[in-house]
Amino acid sequence: MRTLLNVVWLVFSGFWMALGYAVAGVICCALIVTIPFGVACFRIARYALWPFGYRVTDRYDAGLASGIANVIWVIVAGIWLALGHIAAGIAFCVTVIGIPFGIAHFKLVPVSLLPLGREIVPA
């Protein structure tokens, strides 16, 4: 069932979301200072491509630098990405068939809002 949901997700929104996060990751890695954000974008892109069967957990070994970087991320991009995922989640939840995909968008909100200090693991 997860594979079927992932394939349908890939067709309807996963490919474009993953592509957007990957492009943002390339841009962040091109600017030397923002390489941690680029790595986080690539991690989110992989999760956005194939979300069913994975979950986001906190990394307890992340330090103060991750917290400070997350504050910068929220101000620059995080709030807008989270609002986009919330809007897409609500739009998908309007139909009965779209509810699992809306829930997948809601699962992407925490990691898009605060990506550093998070880890994506199999469910």
Proportion of residues in helical segments? over 70%
| End-to-end gap | 14 Å
Quickly give the structural class: mainly alpha
Structural domain tally: 1
Percentage of β-strand residues: 5-15%
Q: Count the strands? A: 2
Order of helices and strands: HHEHHE
- Report the sheet with the most strands, covering strand number, pairing sense and barrel closure: 2 strands, antiparallel
> What's the total helix number?
4
Question: What is the gyration radius calculated from CA atoms?
Answer: 14 Å
Would you identify the regions where 5 or more consecutive residues have pLDDT less than 50? Answer: none
Summed over residues and divided by their number, the pLDDT gives a mean of: 90
Strand order of the largest sheet: 1-2
Shape: globular
Keywords: Membrane, Transmembrane, Transmembrane helix
InterPro entries: Inner_membrane_protein (IPR052937), UCP028777 (IPR031308), YccF (IPR005185)
Pfam families: YccF
Domain Inner membrane component: 4-53, 68-118
